[in-house]
Design brief:
alpha/beta, Rossmann fold, 2 domains, 42% helix, 25% strand
Length: 290
């Protein structure tokens, strides 16, 4: 009889409540902020992390999950009796984590041939960040809880992930400039003119989809773009950061435009905050076919 374990990383931004509810294994990242290093979801929560960001002029730096860590995870889950390990991991264009999971699988079976025919490792590139793949992780866990087999769950992920997209607006360009996401000169000019970029995450790429002037119009523009791009009638998730009012505003705007509320709200952790800053307003959704 098969026994399925769903595994993701902390950049999926799934809540601790869902992690516990569905028995999802969430792999933390090591984050360096100034002279100190932390383990996400272990040493501090999001609120504590935002507070540290505000106290430090440097941007946070995150480390990839290395092959050795994955091998340890595979062995632990195999010894616990799991027959199918289904991983959905951070965008391979932004981190070597997904590639390391594949390399570790090869090494694991070389070192533990007794599991070669007993354990199946299915690793997916999440193709983005936060709720883009966090929401499919939750659905995969629900499917497993309901008795779906690994074939059905992996088929769902193969179909769902390439259709997922995010729009999010940034209220400051400080972190994007320091991380190199936006050139420093452009960020300086944007701040002077009050221009706020709206970023699009789709199929591993992060691009500037639009700009608007002033904080007040940012959430409205994100909501308009989401309403234009979403596959009608499908669930969507709100993405927010340190400001709870951004979550409330995005929920209100999208509910009005789409006629139904978000399926969930995802608060960004260290990975997106390092590039976008602690305050964002965004949405993740299944996009219309082009």
């Amino acid at each position: 009889m098969s026994k399925i374990k769903i595994i993701t990383d902390a950049a999926s931004d799934i809540s601790s409540e869902d992690e516990l509810k569905y028995g999802i294994r969430v792999i933390p990242f090591q984050v360096t902020l100034g002279d100190e290093s932390y383990t996400t979801r272990v040493d501090m929560d999001n609120a504590q992390f935002y507070a540290r960001m505000a106290q430090c002029d440097e941007i946070p730096k995150t480390a990839q999950v290395n092959p050795f860590q994955f091998q340890e995870i595979y062995l632990q889950e195999a010894q616990a009796g799991y027959t199918d390990l289904i991983l959905v991991l951070i965008n391979s264009e932004g981190s070597a984590t997904y590639g390391n999971s594949l390399l570790a699988a090869e090494q694991f079976f070389e070192e533990h041939p007794e599991y070669r025919d007993r354990v199946h490792i299915h690793s997916f590139d999440g193709l983005g960040y936060s709720a883009l793949y966090g929401a499919p992780v939750i659905e995969a866990a629900r499917m497993a809880e309901s008795g779906a087999d690994a074939t059905a769950i992996t088929a769902y992920l193969q179909d769902c992930l390439p259709q997922r997209q995010v729009y999010f607006g940034m209220y400051t360009l400080k972190y994007a400039a320091k991380s190199g996401r936006i050139p420093s000169a452009a960020a300086f000019l944007g701040d002077k003119l009050g221009l706020k970029p709206i970023m699009k995450i789709f199929d591993r790429a992060i691009t500037t989809a639009a700009k608007c002037r002033g904080d007040a119009k940012l959430a409205q523009k994100v909501a308009e773009m989401t309403a234009e791009s979403i596959l009608p009638g499908t669930p969507y998730e709100v993405i927010y950061g340190s400001d709870e009012s951004s979550r409330e505003e995005m929920t209100k705007l999208l509910t009005e435009k789409l006629g139904y509320p978000p399926a969930a709200a995802y608060q960004i952790g260290a990975v997106i905050a390092a590039n976008a800053g602690p305050k964002v307003a965004g949405a993740a959704f299944t996009r219309k076919p082009e």
